[in-house]
Amino acid sequence: MKQQLLFLSFMIMPFVSFSQEETFSINAEGITLKEVLLEIESQSNYTFFFVDSWLDADPISVNFQNKPLNTILTEVFKDTYLNYYVYKNQIILTPNNLVYDALPEGFFGSENDTMGNSLTSGDKAGKRNMENISPIFYKGIQNRNLNKPIKTLSIGKETTAKSNKKYSLSGVVTDKVSGKPISNLAILVKSKNIGAITDSLGYYEIKLPQGANLLETQSLGSENLRTRVVMYNNGKLDISLNETYEELGEVFLETTNNNNVSDAIVGSETINVEQIKNIPLVLGERDILKVATTLPGITKAGEGAAGYNVRGGRADQNLILLDDAVLYNPSHFFGIFSAINPFTSGDVNIYKGSIPAKYGGRLSSVFDIHTKNANTQKFSGEAAIGPVTSNLSLEVPVVNNKSGLIIGGRATYSNWILKNLDEESLNNSEASFYDIIGKYHHSFDDKNKIQATGYFSKDKFSLTSDSLFSYQNRLMSINYEHKFTEAHKANIIFSNSDYKFDINYENDIRDNFQSGYNINESELKMILDYELSENHNFIYGLSSKLYVVDPGEIKPIGGESEITKLKIPRERGLESSVFISDEFKISEKLLLNAGVRYSIYAALGERSQRIYETGLPKSTATVLDTLNYKNNEVIETYGGAEARLSARYFLKPNLSVKASYNNTYQYIHTLTNNTTISPTDIYKLSDLNIAPQKANQYSLGLYKNIDNNLYELSAEAYYKRSKNLLDFKTGAKLFLNENVETEALQGVGKSYGIEFLVKKTRGKLNGWLGYTYSRSLIKLDSEFNEQIVNAGRYFPSNFDKPHDVSLVANYKITKRFSFSANFAYQTGRPVTYPIGQYDFNGAEYVFYSDRNKYRIPDYYRLDLSFNIEGNHKIDKLAHSFWNISIYNVLGRNNPYSVFFVTKDGKVEALQSSIFSVPIPTITYNFKF
């Protein structure tokens, strides 16, 4: 049987009635409405057109003996919202509304008919009686706020009887969590000055004109909901609302929004910050970026490693933005904790495939994190107390309904724990961190808004008695928004970011020293958003960023230290860009997002630059000259056009295919010869001797939603080529090296993979399962042996992990109790092993394999947690939440790294692990 929805955009041919002689007999118990229609089709040449979801699946009983078809259909559709229309041997079902053969005379509202003839007096009378005709038309209203789509509901069943001017809409309004009725809630249609108030039982009744009405709810303590209702007849609409002062992570808002299928952007992810409180993580700390690693294509080099690897890219190839300012080190405590406060975070969007044109400067991904706005009506807050850390955030109204301030802070008391451990080797250890963030936002009027954010974090650690390491992030941003019209707005943003680390070494008086490093950047950008029409949405603007890098210094501590003071000259660079993109709706099926970004970078003086002999390795022996550049004098420039293309094509309304192409430039590099990124890694700007990194990425994806978006399925494949990737010679000295280009190797890379993701978005059991197969390879080849690695062949990068599986599951036992589980499996990362020994001049040496030829053991981990919500009473001081979790339930001794030592003339392999035993945690959270 044909089952499809027939869309009518023009008048249908005259009605064809049923044959008077044709009758049917159907007698059945427990038959569904769909089976009734199938039986009619089997007895005749009629074909029904409908959507399965329109038909009630509950069984019914029918008893028709030699009855005309219209009698049968009228009876079986009597208690439904379905109407039917017959055209020849086709029967078209329609929800709520009727299909009309013709419009009444005078419908188009002119004194002439459609042929230009004058209307008769009778025609004019028909025009005057327009208000009594049945057909209901309404103009679709475009919703510009994509974050809050307005749902459209049809109410009642249209009939052929004379139309009323108004219909009755009634129902009950309840709290979504407790189920209790909400009284004294206003239900309004502002444009028509119509309103009603719920009674003590939450009941309301309101008279609405036929056609479309924009219904709004207003009440203190409950969310404001906007719903468009189309009135065809009297009907019911029950409404459930969330409390405004508590956004429970367990609540799933049901909506027809299917952005994962309909958007043109490939490889984008959104993290719901409220939901992640149930995911069991180490030491009970809610962690946004750790949750990101459970999504396909995003990994870490190892447990406890700082930095993230996205689609085979290096950790320094990710642009991590906090309110439009760059966060250079997003980790605390060697990567065990994230530097992002979850209590103050709002939107988290990750772009790993198709990167919008407004972002630039990195090759692999963008993590765009925004702090939420404070409550402007009442004072509120949230806090958490855990075994190692505590967290507190406060929301303070400044001007009622106009401005507010949110402040958040986290700190650890791990120093106190270390001092009380019965372990002599840790008595002099130190490990602590804290971070604080504040955001103020103010709405001057509907067209002008401003927000300002400040953030600071600091880590200190000392795992030996002679060295103290510390590093800190500081950033600020100011964002001014102006609306020229509802369709055209502009954001002017200024940001500044600063990252630094210090090392204090005090052991031998002659060797005591203090060393440090600092990078600072300031950016000014303007982003404009212009919705030209329903088919074109332009985003365009320009930006300019100034880098200032102090590559490092060392100075003696105390008068007896023999350390020579050294300061590496400052580096400066200016990166500017202009960009434009258009989301172009070519047809109902095809959506194109096309953009271009042109970036240009200039390395600036005051600095000295060596000129090396062409075609020879860079070394002291091949220096031809040294050039001195004055302050702000341009040393070298790089740049080019960056294409950002992506497209979506609907195969079906809930099935789409997407493709994208990006090319990107990156003018800043990380100097490290560690396996993973560390707090003491330093950054190097492109200059006369170090070229910028470049990448080209191709992506293709298939996306499918099932059962009204209950399940989301996706499969994405990508292929990326990179140039000028920075690597280094074995044993290279990078820190405090004024001519680091003599230690550098620049090679090419390629990465490819396929990612699968299955999500269940709501219900008692929800979560996701992700699997990634990927490869990340690099090639370092040259005409000179000293610059060749692995014979100039491609070899696995340090973070190449072909197989990656993540499972996140939440099961809600009751409204207050839930169970969560998190499972992760990854292929072991590459490592270089010693494969032999040899003697030379009486000394024993180790002979190593090709770089990254072997792998450490595979990684897997299972975490479990039990979550307890406090009771949902409205009148109480605070709303609480307990999380009882066990990290690494299986006690898997996952190796972080493998290293080799020579002991008693023999080479022994050792491995280090971060968490090799189950770690139980109890964390108490509360909102007030």
TrEMBL record:
Could you tell me which InterPro entries the record lists for this protein?
Beta-barrel_TonB_sf, CarboxyPept-like_regulatory, Oar-like_b-barrel, Plug_dom, Plug_dom_sf, TonB-dep_rcpt-like
Domain TonB-dependent receptor plug as annotated: residue spans: 284-362
Signal as a keyword of this entry, yes or no, is yes
Q: Where in the cell is it found?
A: Cell outer membrane
Q: What is its main location?
A: membrane
Its membrane topology, per UniProt? Multi-pass membrane protein
Pfam families according to UniProt: CarbopepD_reg_2, OMP_b-brl_4, Plug
- Top-rank taxon: Bacteria
Q: What keywords sit in the KW lines?
A: Cell outer membrane, Membrane, Signal, Transmembrane, Transmembrane beta strand, Transport
Cite the TonB-dependent transporter Oar-like beta-barrel domain residue spans from the record: 566-676
Protein family per UniProt: Belongs to the TonB-dependent receptor family.
From the Swiss-Prot or TrEMBL record, give the protein name.
Answer: Carboxypeptidase-like regulatory domain-containing protein
